[in-house]
Amino acid sequence: MIIDLHLNGKTVIVVGAGNEALKRIKLLQNEGCKIIVIGEKPNSEITKLSKTKKIIFKKIKITSSLFLKTYKPFLVIASTTDSSLNQKIIETAKKMKILAYASDSPDSSDISYLSLIDIKKTIKIGISTNGGSPIMAKKIKSNVEKCVQKNISDEDVELIKIQKFARTESKKYILIQAERKKFLYDLMNDRRVKELLKDGKYKAIQTTIKKMVKDWK
């Protein structure tokens, strides 16, 4: 089952400071989480991220999984070159009910990485081979990305933002979930909103939605 893991405000530890660790760090950077990287010899890019305060780097030689008891993260990513150490980290994390991922052992991990198509930081489309072949996931992504980008318009992206605003507003006044759902579906086809969207009048759209929510029966 594919789920979207919300890491905003959570602590994530990446163990290792080489290229594999850097790949994982880059994927975490837009998730709003606190990133702690633990390793002995960071590569130049990880050093740069540490100096610019985008991550917290701890220069420690890791030989066991005891660090988990100190930091108690929400998620730990084991990306060292020592497979047995990665496995120890995974096993300890699971005992402590910490989500864990090992770069060299996706089958024993709690999560798997998808090959993502990101559209204007609003839409994410994930391609997964269930850990069977990350290389094929990337190849498939490359094949379908242009087609996906072509078929999702700027208007689609704006409608998502409008729906998000409307969901928040509707919860204040429409207390029954089924009614909120109906309201949101009706909103998608509302002629006034479509006209305002065409003219780029986003503030007016929000004002209209607020009135529609209050008048909903």
Number of strands: 7
Gross morphology: elongated
Counting DSSP H or I runs of 4 or more residues, the number of helices is 9
The tally of domains stands at 3
Q: Give the CATH architecture of the largest domain.
A: 3-Layer(aba) Sandwich
Strand content: 15-25%
SSE order: EHEHEHEHEEEHHHHH
* Average pLDDT score: 94
At the first level of CATH, what is the class of the largest domain? Alpha Beta
CATH fold name of the largest domain, please? Rossmann fold
Major sheet: 5 strands, parallel
Helix content: 40-55%
Largest sheet, spatial ordering of strands: 3-2-1-4-5
Report Rg.
22 Å
Descriptive account of the structure:
With 217 residues, the chain is an alpha/beta fold. The protein has three domains: 1-113, Rossmann fold (3-Layer(aba) Sandwich); 114-152; 155-215. Helix content is 50%, strand content 15%. The chain has nine helices and seven strands. It has helices at 19-28, 44-51, 67-71, 83-95, 134-151, 154-173, 177-188, 191-198, 202-215; strands at 11-15, 34-39, 56-59, 75-78, 99-102, 115-119, 123-127. The protein has a five-stranded parallel beta sheet, sandwiched between helices. Strands 6-7 form a two-stranded antiparallel ribbon. The longest helix is centred in the C-terminal third of the chain and has 20 residues, at 154-173. The chain is elongated, with a radius of gyration of 22 Å. The two termini are 37 Å apart.
